[in-house]
Amino acid sequence: MKKVYPDATAALAGLLRDGMTIMAGGFGLCGIPDVLIDAVRESGVKGLTVISNNAGIDGVGLGVLLETRQIAKMISSYVGENKTFAKQYLGGELEIEFNPQGTLAERIRAGGAGIPAFFTKTGVGTLIAEGKEVREFDGESYVMERGLFADISLVHAWKGDTEGNLVYRKTARNFNPMMASASRMTVAQVEHLVQPGEIDPDHIVTPGIFVKRMIHVQNPNKRIEQRTTRTRAGAEAAGVGGGAI
């Protein structure tokens, strides 16, 4: 099977439809499949349910789909950096299903493993548990959470071979690997595309069996969500200006 496509539009051709559920990898702005997200925007599909740790920021990542009002529901953990998100939610235009971050990760992992539900102590006695089954195990209360499974997963990898085997780097490994296994179709954008056999098998995180389509995105734009600076140690005493990230 030929998995490598010339661009994001071609890679998503025939996969997108109104009302579908999409998983989008990344953590903050790190490891987001931004090129694929832009192609979703250009397709014009709407009424989407999007599962993602966060909603990007205004104009970046999933923020571009919020601007065009293509997202109807977000299943997320943290969305505090997006003003458009807040405005649409408070205006009743956007449905939100909030999750504790660890619970969201486990719901996705469970979906990929074929586990329909599990019990966790996180959220017991809070708004998170409202309307959900609570059961006692060994004298402790646990709330039932459902596994998550999507129509399509969009992920970003540092390296991949043409058979779809993927390697992630540092923070970008956060949600991408579990999402790659938790949908009917995974489409990956990779920074470094190599031939089969060029990746040490011990380094492969997502086996190629999970990845059906890929695009090569060289030199992606890696944005900094929040830039914090400080004076370099010793620079001030030496009379030298400047800061270090």
Automatic annotation (TrEMBL):
UniProt keyword list: Transferase
SUPFAM superfamilies (alphabetical): NagB/RpiA/CoA transferase-like (SSF100950)
Region (Disordered), start-end ranges: 226-245
Domain of life: Bacteria
SMART domains hit by this protein: CoA_trans
MF terms (GO), sorted A to Z: transferase activity
PROSITE patterns: COA_TRANSF_1
Ranges in coiled-coil conformation: none
Similarity annotation: Belongs to the 3-oxoacid CoA-transferase subunit A family.
Name the record gives this protein: Succinyl-CoA:3-ketoacid coenzyme A transferase subunit A
Lineage of producing organism: Bacteria, Pseudomonadati, Pseudomonadota, Alphaproteobacteria, Hyphomicrobiales
